[in-house]
Write a structure and sequence with these properties.
The chain is built from 21 helices and 19 strands. By secondary structure, the protein is of the alpha/beta class.
């Protein structure tokens, strides 16, 4: 027994408010696993919501597992002490169901580590009838689950609220062989059983065919919650060990109709849905009993029809607000005042591209005038620091686009400097650069990622230029990390053999060399119009023809038609 590990878990649990007690009983036991650290897990609203949903089910008890912190991981590996639950310190292998909640592709690499610590085989065909079933959910499950298809028994394709009830009905009432169970699972809405599908590859390595067997459908349709008022999504557990330690989170809407062509969440969460103010009020009041600050969570917070009312009511109750995102063209002076009254010192904006040509390419729908107007509003509202999100390496990007980005940043910096001089305190402008990754089920899924050498050269040039701008900083996501994410986001089942090697510490090039995979095949290659994608075993609700049409509009510099026309074509928004 490792007393240090158990004592740390108990101390962590003792500092929480709102967790289900370890004494909760239920004949069906679920291990809810977040394949990253406790800090990341408890910062994830979806993880907390699923935990609540599972523990609200009669006859079911759910306990949490996370990737151990670095020192704890070393002790697990040194002593062989099994991975155990936070609530009751029960080993992972003793649960009926392991539910993986995966929000980021790079966390795929942690799954082999967790299975090894849990004394379980990594690959599903090596586990026995006595081992727990393994389910994967989370956004990665209905974006592209194929890189981990050989690791899991089933995948939840869509949102938890409509999928969990019938799934639990079947699992909790079943007592028979798993061969028959897989066929029954495949007939449930939103459940993908990878072992019931055969994948054939063409001579060039592309997917040639995806053939279902038994009772499995040709494609698994994504499930979504039609009425968001039926979701309880908010912070249920409060702890100081989280990114949002000083606030209670409340989801106010889901999905986005803006149609940014690079944004997977903008497509796979369609249609856009908002929670009513009547539903939000009691949840906000509950949150204010725990924290003074309410974090409003949505893809586009200001697009909520009652956004101004929500802000005003939180402030009237003596609380403050924090927003997960701000839309530049929806920002008003009242919004900025509310942010100022809530104590915001930093606000983030996402122009995404510096040139008008590239903003039109990604369908951002913003002009330079709108961007600068929003910056003026924030500067006049005494916001101290500004963070700007940009993508680099977008398809068709050239040096002219980089030059225009730097020119735009300089204009923003001068506005910010003038406001700082007027109030006697200069703030900072921070650029956050993220390499573009073509994601499944977006119009840019046919594009390739820019080559590593090109990205490094452009980044080096931008660092030099930004270094000459006072009170301006630059942060960039790791290019190597972005390339790994691209491979895992766009990979097929053959990518699974890389995961144990990456988990052992090999870098991407080393792992690919060992198993004979060309990373450029997945990362940089431009897809042909008729290529079959590995992730098309999923039916997301947006047609392939519509996505291809949007890709062609991007190439020709056209924006998406107005919403009514878009709805007629995609059938979702």
């Amino acid at each position: 027994m490792s007393r240090n590990l158990i004592e740390k878990a108990r101390q962590r649990l003792a500092t929480e408010r709102g967790a289900s007690p370890a004494s909760r009983t239920g004949s069906f036991r679920v291990a809810l696993v977040y394949p990253n650290t406790y800090h990341h897990a408890m910062s994830n609203l979806g993880f907390q919501t699923v935990y609540h949903l599972l523990n609200s089910r009669d006859g079911c008890s759910c306990e949490r597992f996370c990737l151990p912190d670095t020192d704890d991981l070393a002790e697990h590996q040194r002593t062989g002490f099994p991975l155990f639950s936070l609530e009751s310190q029960t080993p992972l292998c003793e649960f009926d169901l392991i539910a993986l909640s995966v929000s980021f592709e790079n966390d795929f690499v942690h799954i082999p580590i967790l299975m090894q610590l849990g004394h379980l085989s990594c690959f599903s065909d090596q586990r026995t009838e006595n081992d727990p079933l393994v389910l994967m959910g989370g956004v990665c499950a209905f974006l592209n689950p194929e890189p981990v298809a050989d690791l899991v028994d089933m995948v939840a394709v869509g949102e938890a609220e409509p999928i969990l009830p019938p799934l639990l009905d079947l699992l909790m009432g079943y007592d028979g062989p798993r061969t028959e169970l897989r066929n029954r699972l495949a007939q449930l809405p939103g459940i993908y059983v990878p072992s019931l599908y055969s994948i054939d590859y063409a001579d060039g390595g592309q997917v040639a065919a995806i053939a279902p067997r038994g009772q499995a459908p040709a494609r698994v349709a994504r499930c979504y919650l039609a009425d968001l008022d039926d979701s309880p999504s908010r912070s249920f557990i409060h702890t100081s060990e989280t990114e949002f330690r000083d606030m209670s989170l409340v989801e106010i809407s889901r999905g986005c109709s803006r149609g940014c062509r690079f944004c997977a969440a903008g497509y796979i969460y369609l249609p856009e849905r908002s929670r009513s103010i009547e539903t939000l009020r009691p949840q906000i009041e509950t949150g204010l009993c725990e924290q003074d600050r309410i974090g409003l969570v949505a893809a586009a917070v200001a697009d909520h029809p009652a956004f101004s009312t929500i802000q005003a009511e939180v402030l009237e109750k003596g609380g403050t607000i924090s927003v997960s995102s701000l839309r530049l063209d929806a920002l008003t002076a009242d919004d900025v005042l509310a942010l100022q009254q809530s104590g915001h010192r930093t606000v983030s904006l996402a122009p995404e591209a510096g040139s008008q040509r590239l903003r039109d390419f990604i369908n951002k729908g913003l002009t330079e005038e709108q961007i600068l107007a929003a910056v003026h509003l924030l500067a006049d509202g005494s916001i101290r620091h500004l963070k700007l999100y940009f993508l680099i390496g977008l398809p068709t990007e050239g040096q002219d686009d980089i030059d225009e980005l730097l020119t735009l940043v300089e204009k923003i910096r001068l506005i910010w400097r003038a406001a700082g001089q007027a109030r006697g305190a200069l703030g900072t402008v921070t650029l956050s650069l993220n390499p573009f990754i073509p994601k499944p089920f977006t119009p840019l899924q046919w594009a390739g990622m820019e080559a590593e050498k090109v990205l490094k050269k452009r980044l080096q040039g931008m660092r030099s230029a930004i270094a000459r701008m006072p009170n301006t900083q630059l942060h960039c996501e790791s290019i190597r990390g972005a390339r790994l994410q691209a491979l895992l986001a766009r990979g097929d089942r053959r990518v699974a053999q890389l995961l144990p090697l990456l988990a052992e510490g090999l870098n991407l090039k080393q792992a690919c060399r060992r198993v004979g995979i060309d990373p450029a095949f997945y990362i940089e290659r431009v897809r042909s119009a008729d290529e079959r994608f590995p992730w098309e075993v999923i039916a997301p609700g947006v047609s392939r023809d519509y996505l291809w049409c949007e890709y062609q509009r991007a190439v020709s510099g056209q924006l998406t038609p107005r919403c009514s026309e878009q709805c007629q074509q995609c059938g979702v928004c």
